[in-house]
Write a structure and sequence with these properties.
- InterPro entries: GIY-YIG_endonuc (IPR000305), GIY-YIG_endonuc_sf (IPR035901), GIY-YIG_UvrC_Cho (IPR047296), RuvA_2-like (IPR010994), UVR_dom_sf (IPR036876), UvrABC_protein_C (IPR050066), UvrC (IPR004791), UvrC_RNase_H_dom (IPR001162).
- The UvrABC repair system catalyzes the recognition and processing of DNA lesions. UvrC both incises the 5' and 3' sides of the lesion. The N-terminal half is responsible for the 3' incision and the C-terminal half is responsible for the 5' incision.
- It is found in: Cytoplasm.
- By secondary structure, the protein is α+β, with helices and mostly antiparallel strands.
- The protein has 5 domains: 90 residues, GIY-YIG endonuclease (3-Layer(aba) Sandwich), CATH 3.40.1440; 144 residues, no CATH class; 99 residues, no CATH class; 148 residues, UvrC, RNAse H endonuclease domain (Nucleotidyltransferase, domain 5, 2-Layer Sandwich); 48 residues, DNA polymerase, domain 1.
- The protein contains 19 helices and 20 strands.
- Strands 14, 15, 16, 17, 18, 19 and 20 form a 7-stranded mixed beta sheet that branches. A 6-stranded mixed beta sheet has the order 5-11-10-9-12-13, with helices on both faces.
- It is elongated, with a radius of gyration of 40 Å.
Length: 598
């Protein structure tokens, strides 16, 4: 049966009952799941308020095209249903709990002579699962303790009575090492084995007191029978159990089982720590990160985390300690904010974990940011710059024996090439191969344009060349009144030396430095860009010259053909009519005949 649905305009028709509401967009995709003590009041609050709602919530409300509801008996039932729906559908506007791990369990199998081993797959028919464990190390510690206290088998043999009585198996090395009593050969009966399993089960449940009483009783029995060797063995096991318990004990061991949750909030994220306490000991500790979606208050974030983590780690503790004040605890969930005593110490311990996790996360994010800018920070330091050089422009000239003099400018943003900002320049005012004058022209043209268009200027200019080219570039900056406002350096090719204007000697940067490699990379990119442009121009000139050898064909006609057909090869492949359509009948016939003349 389909859930009742409403149009957003009909939100006032919703019942005054607890339940869960679901918002769908125009594509009938679930975008938000919410819980409410009163469905009518809660849903109406999204549509009736004009102030006090943040932009993210307003954006979500604009997307809502359909509302579905499910009525439940209590607010706590609504919490549980909301959690299940969010886990299943993961709507885009709901709080995200950033934790996609699968956690390990310890499985107690339901076979003859049961085994205990770790697994991440839960198949209920195999036996009883204990966990999940937030830490593999903690799980292994428990498993190691159990195997040190009890001689449980680790093999996968089918130890049914029929198989054992048929003498199908032989004892393995574990028997000879004293880690197993050989049930496979009938050397241990199932009743005594199950007695050990029962005590192991108590440890897995956190009931260490029962296990301690068991070993103490066994030790006294052995001593009374003057079996001092067995008594010593039980004493050592009791000591191991007491030592394990002492390490994990944080409050009075008579304290009932309880959960501890604390939250530390940031602008976009919140961090929640969960401690599970059983018989005065921490049996689980987990910190998670929640991503805020609609600027939710901390109480709502914490409540969401409590429901999800208790569900995930199968907690049934009746009391939940929190570090926030909940005026109205959901029915069925006892939320307490302790002020003094052992329980307050647990809150402080949990808060330490949450704060440490937050510090680690933020420092990791800052480290990632610093790593990204590491080379630029090093360059800033090496060149003694006032600002981070996240916008670098580099110039290079190219001419071969004075033909087709051109220049290039490449741009690097945040240490990476920004190819859309690259520029080619034809040298217009310089006659002959004059690199210095050509450099002055292109630098002047580039920054005169940026100033006139009010575009951002670079934080560093790199000139491919030595003192001569650098001086020419500086002259252009002076003419534009930009000298001293933009740092400028030259890199000489021969020894890869870095020059500042007016400095007689180059500055020293370690040849293995990442900052020098960045400058070299930018210089090489400018050189490649200039050479490619020059080569293209020479290639076009060569193609033009082929056409210019045809009588009656001038440069304008040749360029017209190349512009239309894009290459000399395509002109050769074109039909007579196609060429005539571009340059006319007379010239077209001349070109056709010249190209196809045997």
């Amino acid at each position: 049966m389909q859930s009742p649905s409403y149009l957003p305009a009909n939100h006032n028709q919703l019942p005054d009952l607890p339940g869960v509401y679901r918002y769908y967009n125009a594509e009938d995709v679930l975008i938000y799941v919410g819980k409410a003590k009163n469905l009518k009041k809660r849903v109406s609050s999204y549509f009736n308020k004009n102030t006090g709602i943040n932009q993210k919530t307003k954006k979500m409300v604009r997307e809502i095209k359909k509302i579905e509801i499910t009525i439940v008996n209590s607010e706590f039932d609504a919490l549980l249903l909301e959690n299940n729906l969010i886990k299943k559908s993961q709507p885009k506007y709901n709080i995200l709990l950033k934790d996609d791990k699968t956690y390990p369990y310890l499985l107690l199998t339901n076979e003859h002579f049961p085994r205990i081993y770790s697994t991440r797959r839960v198949i209920p028919s195999l036996g009883t699962y204990f966990g999940p464990f937030a830490s593999v190390k903690a799980m292994n510690n428990v498993l190691e303790l159990i195997h040190s206290l009890f001689t449980l088998r680790t093999c996968r043999l089918d130890l049914s009575p029929e198989k054992i009585s048929s003498s199908k198996y032989k004892v393995c090395l574990e028997y000879h090492l004293g880690n197993c009593k050989g049930p496979c050969e009938g050397l241990q009966d199932e009743k005594s084995y199950l007695a050990d399993i029962e005590q192991a089960k108590n440890i897995l449940k956190g009931n260490l007191g029962i296990a301690k009483s068991y070993f103490k009783e066994k030790m006294n029995e052995s001593a009374a029978q003057l079996d001092f060797e067995s008594a010593q063995s039980f004493k050592e096991k009791l000591d191991s159990l007491l030592n394990y318990h002492a390490k994990s004990l944080v409050i009075n061991p008579t304290t009932e089982s309880l959960d501890v949750f604390t939250i530390v909030s940031e602008e976009k994220f919140a961090f929640v720590n969960y401690l599970r306490i059983k018989n005065g000991a921490i049996t689980l500790s987990k910190t998670v990160e929640l991503k805020k979606k609609l600027d939710e208050p901390d109480q709502e974030l914490l409540l969401t985390a409590i429901i999800r983590l208790r569900d995930q780690f199968l907690s049934d503790a009746k009391e939940v300690l929190v570090n926030l004040d909940f005026e109205d605890s959901p029915e069925g969930l006892s939320l307490v904010q302790p002020k003094i005593g052992d329980k307050r110490k647990l809150i402080e311990l949990s808060l330490k974990n949450a704060l440490y996790y937050k510090k680690e996360k933020l420092s990791f994010a800052d480290e990632g940011k610093d790593k990204k800018n590491r080379v630029l920070l090093q360059l800033k330091k090496d060149l003694s710059l006032n600002e981070l050089p996240n916008h670098i422009e580099c110039f290079d000239n190219s001419n071969i024996q004075g033909t087709n003099p051109v220049a290039s400018m490449v741009c690097f943003l945040n240490g990476k090439p920004a190819k859309k900002e690259y520029r080619h320049y034809h040298i217009k005012t310089v006659v002959g191969p004059d690199d210095f004058a050509s450099m002055e022209e292109v630098v002047y043209r580039r920054y005169k344009r940026l100033v006139s268009e009010e575009k951002p200027l670079p934080k560093l200019i790199v000139i491919d060349g030595g003192k001569g080219q650098l001086s020419s570039a500086v002259s252009a900056l002076r003419d534009l009144d930009l000298y001293g406002k933009i740092p400028i350096i030259g890199i000489a090719k021969r020894l890869e030396e870095i020059y500042f204007p007016l400095d007689q000697y180059p500055i020293y940067i370690d040849k293995k430095s990442e900052s020098l490699r960045l400058i070299q990379r930018i210089r090489d990119e400018a050189h490649r860009f200039a050479i490619t442009f020059h080569r293209d121009l020479r290639s076009k000139g060569a193609l033009n010259s082929k056409l210019l050898f045809i009588e009656g064909i001038g440069e304008l006609t040749a360029q017209k053909l190349l512009k239309h057909f894009r290459s000399y090869k395509k002109i050769e492949a074109a039909s007579q009519d196609e060429i005539i359509n571009v340059i006319g009948n007379d010239k077209g016939l001349k070109v056709w005949e010249a190209i196809h003349k045997k």
